[in-house]
Amino acid sequence: MTLREYFTKMKGGAKSPPGVGWTEALWSWLGACIGIGLCGYISARYCEPRDLTLIIGSFGASAVLVYAAIKSPLAQPRNLVGGHVLSALAGVASYQLFGDILWIAAALSVSLAIVVMLITKTLHPPGGATALIAVIGGKKIHDLGFLYALLPAGAGALILLAVALLVNNLSENRRYPEYWS
User: Fold this and answer.
1) In Å, what is the CA distance from 143 to each residue of 19, 84, 100, 112, 153?
2) 43 contacts 152 by C-beta, under 8 angstroms
3) pTM to 2 decimals?
4) 51 and 152 Cβ atoms separated by less than 8 Å
5) Which of 78, 83, 100, 113 could form a disulfide with 90 if both were Cys (CB 3.0 to 4.6 A apart)?
6) Can you tell me the distance from the alpha carbon of 36 to that of 151, in angstroms, rounded to the nearest whole number?
């Protein structure tokens, strides 16, 4: 491959996907507002007084997938829940093994999470952030140890899933999930 051919590939070739209408945008907003709001409320009310949390940054990206890109393979229930839980385990293990050299633990957590998600067919891009949060999340996250995979990662993903099932199926024009496994 020549250098010219290499750079020509970066031009792309497909057309941009069409936009969505206001109705679709409002359903996505409603789901994200309820899903993230519920995680935040439960976290503030029940988890944080016990030095736990139920909300992490990667849930914002998950909300985009499960409420706005509901047909994407990356947004399906297996990917949402499995991606967060397995990535959290990869992140915690990486921190526990290499946490004294943060940049190594960070690199290993994300790369290991990607491999685990690919092998288990649970690829969910926000899982990479869930793994990274296990490393860079600070003392409260580190103190959770492997509990981090269940709370917040697993429980929060299940809340987002429950809301996605309820809200995404209210509209006649939407159906979620596309498949379970």
Assistant:
1) 44, 18, 15, 21, 15
2) yes
3) 0.94
4) no
5) 113
6) 15
Question: Is the distance from CB of 158 to CB of 81 less than 8 angstroms?
Answer: yes
Residue 106 — very low, low, confident or very high, per pLDDT cuts 50/70/90? very high
Paired tokens of 38? 């519920």
Q: How does DSSP assign 22-66, residue by residue?
A: HHHHHHHHHHHHHHHHHHHHHIIIIIGGGT--S--THHHHHHHHH
pLDDT above 90: residue 162: yes
pLDDT tens digit sequence for 55-68: 999 999 999 999 99
- pLDDT 10s digits, 6-41: 999 898 888 888 899 999 999 999 999 999 999 999
Lookup result for tokens 């209408």: 21
Are 128 and 74 in contact by the 8 Å Cβ rule? The answer is no
Q: What is the spatial distance between Cα 168 and Cα 176, in angstroms, rounded to a whole number?
A: 6
Q: Hunting for tokens 């957590």 — which residue is that? A: 109
Q: Encode burial over 33-50: b for 16+ CB neighbours within 10 A, e otherwise.
A: ebbbebbeebbeeebeee
